[in-house]
């Protein structure tokens, strides 16, 4: 499981920062900032943060390109080439393959939750890596296969249905609901395995019989154990309703973005700012919901930050690749110049929130109240550091996802652009196709280089304000898995919605 507590000042934070204040020191004297700027600790921490972020982004980009290539082939088991597949068969293939990717990520995540626990029958020795995944697969395989088949069938039926329903992309929303059902099933199977076959699960189950409560994330309450399997699945499904709504909102945004026509620099800037405002609205709502809970897990912070950032920023990068022959390089620079202003504004908001908490702490004489404020300060710091790291990595993942979709689906016979009348008809389409590939690659590399420069400057400033970016190293493996899953899920969502009926 993920660590519940992460030190707000990991190794690498400057000594002056550790002795002065627990949060961002926007109110610190200029002399203190200048002394930290001359220290090597800030630059070392910046380098470590960037190396970790680029490693995670590169790995996510590799899987994004691989997933996009597989999705571009349509229904693999049909034995037909993409040109010979009907639109209904191709959409069914994309929907089913996307579901397989999603279910594999869910299965890996829940298997990882069980990996650290000991088996009740052999508590003295650790189990091999394949032990818990195999036992979980035995419990959930039938449901998973059934879910994939249902998604295939539903997508095919929607595709051959009335054409008036095609613009609503019902095959995608149906796949979300069915995949969430299978996620709930795997969730319940994991909890049952934890309670019945792990040492800690048996201990918590026995203690819950007398206390009716348990502190474990995976433990079942006593009343849940008496319920039927399907009732527990229903409760788990309800817990995932928030994610279903978030994915549906992101899908609606992608549908709107796919119909946007950009003709000049100002329209590109306006679309980017609107997307940024929409993303900030989602992030702010998720931050409020997360920080109001007693415990904040890093996986929750990364999930609530990375998913909307990757989904929305991919569309912005995607539009940039599609219209780069109609806008100048100044338009692209203007769009990317918004990010440092946004990150500096976020630092100011974090500092403002921490000042209020410190004032409340200094005015309170109650020890319990002071402890609560200290814990809240810790949550704000952890959320700020995780949000910065997830935001940085998500930018590169969005670039990779948009580039992979553009590379494999540009001119694809089953993709929406090919017959789209929106891009100034044949003139724009032919101009886009005649654009040399090395020009598009050079623009992509220019975006990556500019993004690295922005991250270097902003990371130094954030470390000067004592935001502990090194906290990301403590959850490296888990955040890497999450970013890879986000990248694969992102290309799956985009390809499913861009597929032409």
UniProtKB/TrEMBL annotation:
Transmembrane helix recorded as keyword: yes
Keyword Membrane: yes
Record field: transmembrane: 47-77, 89-115, 136-158, 236-256, 268-285, 443-464, 480-500
Keywords associated with the record: Membrane, Transmembrane, Transmembrane helix
The name this protein goes by in its record: Transmembrane protein
Source organism of this protein record: Pythium insidiosum
Lineage: Eukaryota, Sar, Stramenopiles, Oomycota, Peronosporomycetes
């Amino acid at each position: 499981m993920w660590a519940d507590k992460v030190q707000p000042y990991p190794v690498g934070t400057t000594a002056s920062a550790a002795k002065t204040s627990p949060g961002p020191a926007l109110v610190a004297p200029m002399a203190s900032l200048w002394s930290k700027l001359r220290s090597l600790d800030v630059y070392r921490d910046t380098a470590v943060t960037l190396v970790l972020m680029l490693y995670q982004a590169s790995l996510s980009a590799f899987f994004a390109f691989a997933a996009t290539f597989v999705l571009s082939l349509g229904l693999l088991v049909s034995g037909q080439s993409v040109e010979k597949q009907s639109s209904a068969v191709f959409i069914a293939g994309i929907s089913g393959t996307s579901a397989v990717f999603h279910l594999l990520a869910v299965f890996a995540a829940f298997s990882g939750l069980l990996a650290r626990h000991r088996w009740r029958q052999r508590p003295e020795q650790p189990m091999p890596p394949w032990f818990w995944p195999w036992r979980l697969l035995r419990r959930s395989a039938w449901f998973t296969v059934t879910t994939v088949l249902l998604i295939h069938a539903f997508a095919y039926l929607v595709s051959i249905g009335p054409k008036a329903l095609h613009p609503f992309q019902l095959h995608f929303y149906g796949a979300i609901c069915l995949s969430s059902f299978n996620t709930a099933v795997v969730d319940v199977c994991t909890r049952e395995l934890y309670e019945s076959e792990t040492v800690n699960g048996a201990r918590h189950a026995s203690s819950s019989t007398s206390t009716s409560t348990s502190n474990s994330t995976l433990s079942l309450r006593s009343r849940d154990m008496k319920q039927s399997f399907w009732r527990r699945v229903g409760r788990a499904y309800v817990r995932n309703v928030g994610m279903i709504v978030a994915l549906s909102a992101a899908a609606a945004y992608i549908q709107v973005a796919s119909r946007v026509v950009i003709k000049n620099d100002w329209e590109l800037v306006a679309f980017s700012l609107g997307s940024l405002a929409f993303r900030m609205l989602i992030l702010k709502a998720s931050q409020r919901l997360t920080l109001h809970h007693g415990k904040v897990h890093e996986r929750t912070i990364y999930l609530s930050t990375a998913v909307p950032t990757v989904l929305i920023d991919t569309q912005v990068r995607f539009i940039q690749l599609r219209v780069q022959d109609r806008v100048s390089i100044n338009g692209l620079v203007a769009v990317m110049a918004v990010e440092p202003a946004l990150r500096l504004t976020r630092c100011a908001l974090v500092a403002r929130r921490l000042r209020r908490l410190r004032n409340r702490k200094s005015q309170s004489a109650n020890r319990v109240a002071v402890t609560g404020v200290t814990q809240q300060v810790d949550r704000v710091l952890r959320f700020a550091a995780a949000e910065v790291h997830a935001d940085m990595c998500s930018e590169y993942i969005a670039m990779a996802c948009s580039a992979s979709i553009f590379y494999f689906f540009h001119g694809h016979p089953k993709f929406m652009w090919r017959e789209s009348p929106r891009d100034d008809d044949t003139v724009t389409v032919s101009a886009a196709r005649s654009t040399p590939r090395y020009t598009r690659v050079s623009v992509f590399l220019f975006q990556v280089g500019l993004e690295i420069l922005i991250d270097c400057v902003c990371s130094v400033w954030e470390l000067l304000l004592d935001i502990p970016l090194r906290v990301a190293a403590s959850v490296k493996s888990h955040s890497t898995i999450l970013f890879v899953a986000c990248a694969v899920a992102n290309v799956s969502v985009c390809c499913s919605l861009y597929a032409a009926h």
